[in-house]
Design brief:
single chain, about 180 residues, alpha+beta, Lipocalin, eight-stranded antiparallel barrel, about 35% strand, flat
């Protein structure tokens, strides 16, 4: 009977430890808000320049932007309706940037009087939150996560550079091999 008591006591102790976690795991605090999540100091370079997109199901691009960060530079903006039956094109301009936060101005080509400002908050070096400043200004979701992408042309150029490098390394390796020098 004594062994049964100690067995049950040990099982309760194991269950209690597994539910409460170790003292070290209790030190790690989950972020309670997006602002806390964004307080990560490991990202120090906040570069909004480049090609960004927000995709819907099956990688169907809904919003794409080419953001330029040089002063007075204007990039491209494309909004494709969910079913692809209409496309709106316009311009995007980086109005201001302070650390990981920026303000973007989007203007349509077809409606010169229409424009909307968006807040952009860098999450990682390849993603940022895009949020409308005024919900009534635009028919996009309240907040979307834009991700950086590289157009096919740029990817082809990178593949070409990598292939040229690999070819030079093969030639170098063969030359060393002829001299009797072997690399591990």
């Amino acid at each position: 009977m004594k062994n049964l008591f100690y067995g049950v006591l040990i099982l309760h102790l194991i269950l209690w430890v597994s539910c409460t976690g170790s003292p070290r795991s209790r030190e790690v605090k989950e972020p309670e808000s997006p602002a806390e999540l964004l307080s990560d100091s490991s990202l120090t370079d906040f570069d909004f320049e480049g090609n960004w997109r927000w995709c819907w199901v099956d990688s169907h691009t809904i919003v794409s932007m080419k953001i330029l960060t040089d002063k007075d530079s204007i990039g491209d903006y494309v909004y494709t309706y969910y079913f692809g039956n209409r496309i709106e094109q316009g311009k995007v301009k980086l109005l201001s940037q302070e650390g990981r936060n920026a303000v973007l101005l989007v203007e349509y080509n077809d409606h010169r009087s229409w424009s909307a400002k968006f807040n952009a908050t860098m999450l990682t070096d390849t993603s940022f939150f895009l949020t409308r400043q005024k919900p009534e200004d635009y028919y996009l979701e309240d907040s979307i996560v834009m991700t950086k992408y590289y157009p096919e042309k740029e990817r082809a150029e990178v593949r070409k550079i990598i292939e040229e490098y690999n070819q030079k390394e093969r030639i170098r390796y063969e030359a060393l091999k002829k001299k009797g020098i072997y690399l591990k």
